[in-house]
Amino acid sequence: SFTPGQQVAIRNNDSVEHSVTSDTKGAFSTDIDGGETKTLTVPDQPGTYTFYCTYHSNMHGTLVVK
């Protein structure tokens, strides 16, 4: 889990572009090219945030903020 407002490094180890896009509109979203690392700021409010890849509908996960 992460703390509110924490900076998180996200690395795409794949060769194609992916995204980390929250199901909660406006909470977080970033596109990440293959081999790239980006920093994402987690939401300021504690909770469980589900997310998905806009390019690959079968890719999804959960980010927990405590």
Shape: globular
Radius of gyration, in Å, reads: 11 Å
Strand composition percent: over 45%
Summarize the helix and strand pattern as letters. Answer: EEEEEE
Count of helices?
0
Q: What structural class should be given to the helix and strand makeup? A: mainly beta
Number of separate strands: 6
Main sheet strand line-up = 3-2-5-6
Percentage of helical residues?
under 10%
What does this structure look like?
This protein has 66 residues and is mainly beta. The protein is built from no helices and 6 strands. The mean pLDDT is 97. It has a 4-stranded antiparallel β-sheet with strand order 3-2-5-6, with no helix packed on it. Strands 1-4 form a two-stranded antiparallel sheet.
Which SSEs are present, and which pair or pack?
Elements: E1 7-11, E2 18-22, E3 29-32, E4 37-41, E5 47-52, E6 60-65
Antiparallel strand pairs: 1-4, 2-3, 2-5, 5-6
Compact summary:
0% of the residues lie in helices and 47% in strands.
Name a few traits of the molecule:
mainly beta, two-stranded antiparallel ribbon, 4-stranded antiparallel beta sheet
